[in-house]
Amino acid sequence: MPDTTLSTLANIQTKIRRLTRSPSVSQITDAQINDYINTFMLYDFPEHLRMGFMRTNLTFWTMPYVGEYTDNTTDLTSPLYNLKNKYISFHPPVYMAGYQGFFSQSREQFYGIYPQVASIFKIAQGDGITAVYAGTLPNIPILQNNVTFSSRDVNNIGLVLHDVPNLTPGGNMGTTGILVFPNNPIPQGTINYVTGAYLITFPNPPAVGVAINAQTLPYQPALPQAMLFYKDTFHIRPIPDQPYEIKIEAYIRPTELLQGTNMPELSEYWQYIAYGAAKKIFEDRMDQESVQLIMPEFKEQETLIQRRTIDQQSNERSATIYTENVGPTPGGFGSGWGSGQF
Questions:
Q1: Low-confidence ranges of the chain (pLDDT < 50)
Q2: How confident is the model at residue 110, as a pLDDT?
Q3: Mapping DSSP to helix (H, G, I), strand (E, B) and coil, where does residue 281 land?
Q4: With contact defined as beta carbons under 8 Å apart, do 85 and 95 qualify?
Q5: Does residue 194 lie within any of the structural domains?
Q6: 8 A C-beta contact, residue 68 and residue 265
């Protein structure tokens, strides 16, 4: 049985001191070595190699009438907490309430399926005096971050208010929002995305006879079927009508090594980490000759630790449209066997 104690942080530190010819803490402290180790672990390692242990499932739950889910910086218990730093990348398949959904990173493709075409209609008419208007929009619910109220005053100056969603405790868009001028955070009204109730205050009264228009994106809430991942935000469509479990595959960053007894996820990585950290120390010392001396062994360790993943993947053929056929013969054909027989 392998001796896993070889792979502790303390032994990685010792290996680095030997490689960098720095036996004394006066040359480099343990805390400084740890900084190099964790810099390599968190940022270099996952870009050099995407190992199997880094593949995981991100699971979160939708909220009724909320279509966008983004990085959460406040709630430590949220699955989306520190999303953009904790996870490296996201990949299909995505499952929504157990059903496999459509995953895209192209806004053109996604909004080609779920168009963002505004519904424009008149809610009132200016009288040259009134600047405050209240009412309820038809065709509800409406999509957050896509509500605009517009008109023009007696000087033919455009009057525009757009919505900014209130955030939930989890950091996601809520079911209410405020109305603001473009590039001005001061609230000038409110909007309820579910009921359609609004209260708006224009800076100047709309001119006599001039239409006051609302631009919205109505939708029919339902079980989600598709996801767009764009700018560290998950866009879910259709907008959910109730909580649903969302699962998507992701690459997660390796875990930091902070204590002397801490070990990397797989013990065999310890020498690769030591060479990687030593390389960064030499680079900061501008010692390019030493960098070149350790590079052959650094690449050798990189090759060795890839072997486990390569061997694991070599047992499975490349996925094609025929891979779902199951049966004792290749492709599920022959001898009356195949997925169509069950």
A1: 326-342
A2: 95
A3: helix
A4: no
A5: yes
A6: no
